[in-house]
Amino acid sequence: MSVDLSALQAIDRSRLDSSGPIDAPRAIKEGVLQAIGIEPIDRLRPHEETLTAAMAAVAQGILETDAFRWPIIIDGASGVILDGMHRWGLLRTFRFRYVPVLRFDYLADRAIRLDVWCRLLQDVTPGGFASAAELFGLREVPVPLAGIAKRTGALIVGPDNQVYRFPLQEDPVSTLRRLNAFEGELGMRLKLQTSRARYVAEQTALEQMLHPMVVATFPPPLTKQDVVAIAAAGQVFPAKTTRHIFPWRVFDVHVTLHQLQDAPTAEGLEDAVRAEHAALNLRYLGRQVTLDRLYEEPMFQFQQPGATSR
Length: 310
Prior knowledge:
This protein is α+β, with helices and mostly antiparallel strands and 310 residues long. The chain is 34% helix and 24% strand. The chain has two domains: 7-112 and 229-303, Conserved hypothetical protein from pyrococcus furiosus pfu- 392566-001, ParB domain (Alpha-Beta Complex); 118-218.
């Protein structure tokens, strides 16, 4: 579902003097409501692995409130999950019938950006890196640091600030799993703490890769078609492979767990959820909003009239 966000440019300018949330324009609210949906849980296809620890963290918030507040973002045409793999995995584990979603036109909407998560490993010694690099067949290549963003395969910047090409496997999933194995091997050899290894946006990796004793891994670029094809084939990338930036996000789309289990049909529940939220205020919180993490996208929140934004 495409939402016309052109009105936000004037709103963002007006908010320079006042950073508080404001009511979203009516046209935007109507577009957001149309994007909200309810899907049978088994129609959706993940494109990344789910991790037990991550699902446990998600479970705490959902089960404590007995409600689902953050809809999963999907490609409406294919049912591929773009964001919210662990929320979907949790509901599926507990055998819920339905899941709240936001439907986007993934392949056609140019405003949806697909990046990959890079990895920064700190406190890596040159000797430890060299032994792991030899084991995995890394090869030093004459790629200027400025050319990393235009790579066609997987590259690694070592603690010596040299660029190494990571051997490509027979398909993107195999390459990414092999790259994860290299990171794990490096961590094991150097006994790196989890806090010394972190996933970051590519720009952050480019800015910090030359710090002392840092290794930066740059996975191969992916296309939206890759994501849809992998999910359609029943395969999944390793967790934290893709990083999607959407035209907008919304939270506090409140659907109870009872509704997700006992509603007679997905269509009927979808109509009910849209009608309920049509009576609420849709507040625009701005861009670069920090909630559970920092969100770059324009962020909206449904609220009861008179409620305070969080």
